[in-house]
Design a protein that fits this description.
By secondary structure, the chain is mostly helical. The chain has 15 helices and two strands. Strand 1 and strand 2 form a beta hairpin.
Length: about 400
């Protein structure tokens, strides 16, 4: 399987789903054991894992197939169809919520605090055009996780243009792009890699092209290597331990600039898919999480808003104010709600994760799959190099 060009990296797909769940946990503010874990407090850093993994799988699927302006167009249409439909639907959900707030404010004769600043009407257009995190629009406050979708879409275009020059051009350009992106983030971001709307494009470029480099190294030196089950399992466990410790300890320091390289270790080792952990990740649950990963990442904010608000609303209704506990994190101070016993907060957290998965399953089936299929079918009809990619790699990328 390792030597076949059409390989699907099932274990890596599962890791994408697990990382999305960790980011979702980061968004809930329940003061329990789970929320207090440093791995969860720093889970925002797993966005860089998404970038590295995306560069790896996109290069695997398209590096040798983008050869002309027409193939660039097909590639861009495919990627647009992969990321934009769900983003657009969720954007309009948030806009509808703001409209409801506006209507309520009008009833109180004070609508001045709606559709302003990061939710000004023009920001809807920025989000629809996927330019909200390129650096010239300021922060938009709709479905804020979509900042990474904005940067990744334009990174796809940079990648496609470089592919027109051939593999050698990509090989020469990728290290320079990684170095430049990390230099921008390191020089101008006060919180290391925790930059989104300001220098998120540079952050994405660094992560994505790190993944491209890993793919090239894997193809050239490692693709046909057989590790053996025991050695592969040991390497997998070591990679998880090292990367987990890294995420849990770096906070928002300049050490976070190492994130693309740390996550590339996970990508490279699990690309072999030869260890017992990889075999476990290839289970039905792992495949499901991989399928739902994009929906989990994109819907988690909406679900977390409901779950963060529910205890306050319920406690107000019953006349028993919910307890709060301040959380002072590096660059992320906020107030958690406290339901009492630790187990109750954690049970509520697990209920939240279940809700995220259910909502994600619905959006995956009803929005992602139909939209992806429609864009793929209509983009590829006239261009033979891409006719079979959707069937072979659709769950990979």
């Amino acid at each position: 399987m390792n030597s076949r060009e059409g390989q699907r990296f099932i274990a890596l797909d599962a890791w994408r789903g697990i990382a999305a769940l960790l980011v979702a946990l980061y968004r809930l503010e329940a003061d329990g054991f789970l929320h207090g874990l440093q791995l969860i407090q720093n889970a925002w850093l797993f966005v860089d894992f998404f970038f590295v993994l995306s560069g790896f799988v996109i290069a695997h699927a398209y590096l040798d197939r983008i050869e002309s302006g027409s193939s660039v167009r097909v590639f861009v249409i495919r990627r647009f169809g992969r990321v934009w439909p769900l983003h657009a639907v969720l954007l309009f959900v948030f806009v509808f919520i703001e409209l409801a707030r506006f209507a309520f404010a009008v009833m109180k004769s004070d609508p001045s605090n709606t559709f302003v600043d990061g939710k000004a009407p023009i920001t809807i257009l920025w989000d629809l055009m996927l330019v909200q995190a390129i650096g010239f629009t300021g922060t938009t406050l709709w479905n804020t996780p979509a900042w990474s979708i904005s940067t990744e879409f334009w990174t796809y275009i940079v990648f496609a243009i470089l592919c027109l020059g051939g593999r050698k051009v990509v090989m020469l350009a990728a290290p320079a792009i990684v170095a430049s992106g990390l230099w921008v983030v390191g020089s101008f971001s006060p919180n290391g890699m925790d930059t989104t709307f300001q220098f998120g494009f540079a952050r994405c470029l660094a992560g994505f092209f790190t993944g491209v480099i890993v793919l090239m190294l894997w193809r050239r030196y490692f693709r046909t290597l057989v590790l053996g089950n025991d050695i592969a399992t040991l390497l997998e466990a070591a990679a998880i331990t090292i990367v987990g410790a890294f995420v849990a300890t770096v906070g928002r320091s300049q050490w976070t600039l190492l994130a693309p390289f740390m996550f590339s270790m996970i990508v490279l080792i699990f690309a072999f898919q030869q260890g017992r952990i990889s075999q476990a990740l290839a289970s039905g649950i792992g495949r499901l999480l991989g399928d739902l990963s994009y929906s989990i990442y994109m819907t988690a904010l909406l679900v977390s808003l409901a779950f963060n608000k529910a205890p306050v609303v319920i406690s107000t209704r019953i006349g028993q104010p919910v307890a709060t506990a301040p959380h002072i994190g590096a660059g992320n101070p906020h107030t958690n709600f406290d339901l009492g016993p630790t187990w109750l907060n954690d049970a509520y957290t697990l209920l939240y994760l279940a809700a995220v998965i259910v909502v994600s399953w619905v959006t995956f089936r009803c929005i992602e799959v139909p939209a992806r299929n429609w864009f793929n079918q209509n983009a590829s009809k006239a261009f033979w190099p891409f006719n079979n990619i959707a069937a072979r790699d659709k769950r990979l990328v």
